[in-house]
């Protein structure tokens, strides 16, 4: 009797108990659903497509020539050797010289570093001026820059050769640095202009009200807020300039050839035995710098390319 009274009292206080026909909440998703199988299958195929050649390059570069002649390119090396890497860097013949890729590496550094700094510095100021300091003819200037980004390089090679020859810098690193800086300007200006246009205009207007000038606003407000787009510009320029072959072979002399030109001379050599392990090691060495730059700053690259390419 007391239990019945207590039960009725609880029912009055809490209300009648609800009946449940089944479990509540969202239906659990199946791990091996057709959608997941197709999604992860596609990603696996794409990853294998890009990683398999890299795997072959690495394992081949660690094998000796007798093992390579056995023909199984996918098997791991039975005996790891770093001799092909040493030869590719220090003693492989790249034409008349047999000092490997080391000379070309330092030539590429001397070309890439100033070209990246000059092109980014000028393009960032151009983009800032076009986004925040409109002047007479700014839209025409911007249109010319955008058109210049889509002009094929091959069309302008001969005129540039004549201009550099008349300036007395044809065949020098200075001439090649100028060429890379100019050709990187249009696309970088477009990215910087769109990025600066996406920043809050209230900051710019408040700084103007406080009496800040062109360079004060740029250096103290815009640049500190624009790290992602500067990383994007750096990656694009480092990748494009470091991997360039055409400009390097046209606008420089053999003693100033960048790494890519020397790699071509090693791989396409017709003298002696074809050393595939040395060729693979030289190829990996040539591509290490852009890969390292991208992996170190890849997260900022994604953020910056989305803001600089979509907004504005």
Automatic annotation (TrEMBL):
Entry's Gene Ontology BP terms: transmembrane transport
Superkingdom as given in the UniProt entry: Bacteria
UniProt membrane topology term: Multi-pass membrane protein
Pfam family, one: BPD_transp_1
Domain ABC transmembrane type-1: 105-297
Alphabetical UniProt keywords: Membrane, Transmembrane, Transmembrane helix, Transport
Listed InterPro entries: MetI-like, MetI-like_sf
Sequence intervals crossing the membrane: 37-58, 111-131, 140-161, 167-192, 213-236, 280-302
GO cellular component, one term: plasma membrane
Intracellular or extracellular location(s): Cell membrane
Family: Belongs to the binding-protein-dependent transport system permease family.
Protein name (Swiss-Prot/TrEMBL): Glucose/mannose transport system permease protein
Protein's organism: Rhizobium metallidurans
């Amino acid at each position: 009797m007391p239990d019945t009274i207590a039960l009725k009292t609880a029912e009055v206080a809490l209300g009648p108990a609800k009946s449940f026909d089944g479990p509540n909440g969202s239906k659990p998703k199946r791990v091996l659903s057709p959608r997941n199988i197709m999604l992860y299958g596609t990603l696996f195929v794409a990853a294998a497509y890009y990683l398999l050649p890299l795997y072959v390059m690495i394992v081949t570069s660690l094998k000796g020539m007798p093992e390579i002649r056995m023909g199984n390119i996918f098997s791991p090396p039975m005996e790891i050797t770093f001799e092909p890497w040493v030869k590719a860097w220090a003693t492989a013949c790249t034409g008349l010289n047999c000092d490997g890729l080391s000379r070309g590496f330092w030539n590429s550094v001397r070309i890439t570093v100033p070209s990246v700094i000059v092109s980014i510095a000028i393009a960032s100021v151009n983009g800032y001026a076009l986004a925040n300091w409109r002047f007479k003819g700014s839209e025409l200037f911007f249109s010319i820059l955008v058109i210049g980004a889509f002009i094929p390089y091959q069309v302008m090679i001969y005129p540039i050769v004549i201009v550099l020859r008349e300036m007395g810098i044809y065949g020098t690193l200075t001439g090649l640095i100028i060429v890379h800086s100019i050709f990187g300007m249009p696309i970088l200006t477009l990215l910087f202009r769109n990025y600066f246009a996406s920043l809050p205009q209230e900051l710019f207007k408040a700084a103007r009200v406080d009496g800040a000038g062109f360079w004060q606003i740029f250096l103290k407000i815009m640049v500190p807020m624009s790290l992602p787009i500067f990383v994007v510009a750096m990656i694009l320029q480092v990748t494009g300039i470091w991997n360039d072959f055409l400009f390097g072979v046209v606008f420089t002399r053999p003693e100033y050839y960048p790494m890519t030109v020397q790699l071509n001379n090693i791989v396409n050599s017709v003298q002696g035995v074809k050393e595939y392990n040395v060729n693979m090691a030289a190829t990996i060495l040539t591509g290490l710098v852009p890969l390292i730059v991208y992996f170190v700053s890849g997260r900022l690259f994604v953020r910056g390319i989305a803001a600089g390419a979509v907004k504005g």
